[in-house]
Write a structure and sequence with these properties.
The complex is a heterodimer of chains A (about 270) and B (about 80). Chain A has helices at about 30-45, 85-95, 105-110, 115-125, 170-175, 190-200, 215, 220-230, 255-270, and strands at about 15, 15-20, 55-60, 75-80, 100-105, 125-135, 180-185, 205-210, 230-235, 245-250. Chain A is of the alpha/beta class. Chain A has a single domain (about 20-270), classed as Thiamin diphosphate (ThDP)-binding fold, Pyr/PP domains (Rossmann fold), CATH 3.40.50.970. Chain A has an eight-stranded mixed β-sheet with strand order 4-3-5-6-8-7-10-9, with helices on both faces. Chain A has a two-stranded antiparallel ribbon with strand order 1-2. In chain A, helix 3 (about 105-110) packs across helix 4 (about 115-125) and helix 4 crosses helix 5 (about 170-175). Chain A is globular and about 70 Å long. Chain B has about 80 residues and is α+β, with helices and mostly antiparallel strands. In chain B, about 15% of the residues lie in helices and about 25% in strands. Chain B is globular and about 40 Å long. The interface of A and B includes residues 24, 32, 34, 39 and 42 of A.
Chain lengths: ~270, ~80
C-alpha cells in the first residue's frame, strides 16, 4: 500500500505497541515542522550525499521536543528541560562531523533554557536549532510564556497579557548566530530550504517557526494558520507595518566553535612536539 | 494512474490538506475513523497534479500521493 514517504524515517512500532500516530493534537504545527525537516533531511541524504548516521536529533521538554527519540529512526537524545544545547555541545566535542538538529519550543529555548540559548550562539556551535514557537506553554495547559503576544488571552492572563514578548531572532542575532530566519507553518517550501541552508551552514543556525496551537487558541487549525498569516509580513515590506517580519533575517558566516577548537589542538600539538 | 491514500489510523481530521490543495481535490467526508475524526476524501482525482503539497503539510504523515515520474519533474519529492 502507498505510504507517506517520510514514514521511512519513523519508528511506527515500538516494544510496547504502535508509536504512531504521535501524541500531538490535531493540526499541531510541531507535526508539520517534523514533516518539513524530514523532507529537508531526505533531500540531503538522497541527493546531497549526506550520511544518515551523521544526523543527530536532540530535544528538551515540551510538545515539539517529543518529536525526536520517540519517533525518529535517527540517533537522538531527549534531554532535560532547556538543556538540549549543552547535550549538543558534548556530542559535537565527541564527533565534530555530526549534523545536529535541535527541536525546541519557545518555553524550552527562551524561558528555562535562555542562558544556554544565548551562549550557544556566542560560541557559534555548529548546530541547527528549529524553534517551534506557538507563543504559550502548550503541554501544561496554555499558560503565558515569554513569547506570548501582548494582550493575548491565556488561562493565566484571562484579561490579556501585560508583558512584551521576546523577539528570539533579534536575541539570537545579538548573541552571534550566523544564520537566522523566521517562518510561519504555512510556508512549507521556504522552511525546507531554510533547514537545508541551516544544516549546510558551519555555525549556529536558528530557524524560528511561528506555529499554531489550535487547542489552546480555541480555533480550527486552518483559522489559526490564517491568523498567523495576518500578523506577519515578508521582511522586505516589514518597515513601518508594525507586523512580525518573516523571511531570511540574517546570514553572516563566521568560524564555528569546532573549527577554532581544532586550530587550538593543532597549536598545542606543535608546541608539544 | 494517480492514487491518493489516507491512512485512517493516523489521520486526525485537521483538514489542513483540504485547505492547502491548490486544485481542491480533497473534501471533507462523512467517514469517521476509530478516534471519531472526520477523514478527508479525494473527490476529483483527475484534477490532481501530484504536487505533493498535501503530503508535505500533513502534521500526522497520514496522506500519500503517487509520486511524479522522474524525468521532467525537478520539484517532485519522493
Amino acid at each position: 500500500m502507498l505510504k507517506h514517504p517520510m514514514l521511512e524515517y519513523i519508528k511506527e512500532e515500538g516494544p510496547s505497541g504502535m508509536r504512531f500516530p504521535h501524541i500531538l493534537c490535531p493540526g499541531c504545527g510541531a507535526g508539520q515542522v517534523l514533516n518539513y525537516t524530514l523532507h529537508a533531511v531526505d533531500d540531503l541524504i538522497k541527493e546531497g550525499g549526506a550520511k544518515k548516521e551523521n544526523f543527530v536529533f536532540i530535544s528538551g521538554v515540551g510538545c515539539s521536543s517529543r518529536l525526536t527519540s520517540h519517533y525518529l529512526k535517527f540517533d537522538s537524545g531527549w534531554t532535560l528541560h532547556g538543556r538540549s544545547l549543552p547535550f549538543a555541545t558534548g556530542a559535537l566535542l565527541a564527533n565534530p562531523d555530526l549534523k545536529i538538529i535541535i527541536f525546541t519550543g519557545d518555553g524550552d529555548a527562551a524561558a528555562i533554557g535562555g542562558n544556554h540559548f544565548i551562549h550557544a550562539f556566542r560560541r557559534n556551535m555548529d548546530v541547527t536549532i528549529l524553534c517551534v514557537n506557538n507563543g504559550l506553554y502548550g503541554m501544561t495547559g496554555g499558560q503565558v510564556a515569554p513569547t506570548t503576544l501582548p494582550f493575548a488571552n491565556t488561562p493565566t492572563t484571562p484579561y490579556g497579557n501585560i508583558e512584551d514578548p521576546f523577539d528570539l531572532c533579534k536575541l539570537a542575532e545579538a548573541a552571534g548566530a550566523s544564520y537566522i530566519s523566521r517562518w510561519i507553518t504555512a510556508q512549507p517550501m521556504q522552511i525546507i530550504k531554510a533547514v537545508k541552508k541551516g544544516i549546510a551552514n558551519k555555525g549556529a543556525s536558528f530557524i524560528e517557526v511561528l506555529s499554531q496551537c489550535p487547542v489552546h487558541e480555541h480555533e480550527t487549525p486552518v483559522e489559526s494558520m490564517n491568523a498567523l498569516k495576518e500578523i506577519t509580513v515578508p521582511v522586505k515590506k516589514a518597515e513601518g507595518s508594525g507586523k512580525i517580519p518573516v523571511g531570511e533575517l540574517h546570514y553572516r558566516p563566521r568560524p564555528s566553535w569546532t573549527e577554532r577548537y581544532e586550530s587550538v589542538i593543532e597549536k598545542a600539538n606543535e608546541a608539544l612536539s | 494512474m494517480i492514487d491518493i491514500v489516507i491512512n485512517p489510523n493516523y489521520c486526525k481530521g485537521c483538514s489542513i490538506c483540504i485547505e492547502f490543495c491548490p486544485k481542491h481535490v480533497l473534501q471533507p467526508s462523512q467517514d469517521i475513523n476509530a478516534k471519531g475524526y472526520f477523514l478527508p476524501e479525494p473527490v476529483d482525482i483527475e484534477a490532481c497534479t501530484q504536487c505533493q503539497l498535501c503530503v508535505i503539510v500533513c502534521p500526522d504523515l497520514a496522506i500519500a500521493v503517487t509520486p511524479k515520474e522522474k524525468q521532467g519533474s525537478r520539484n517532485a519529492r519522493k
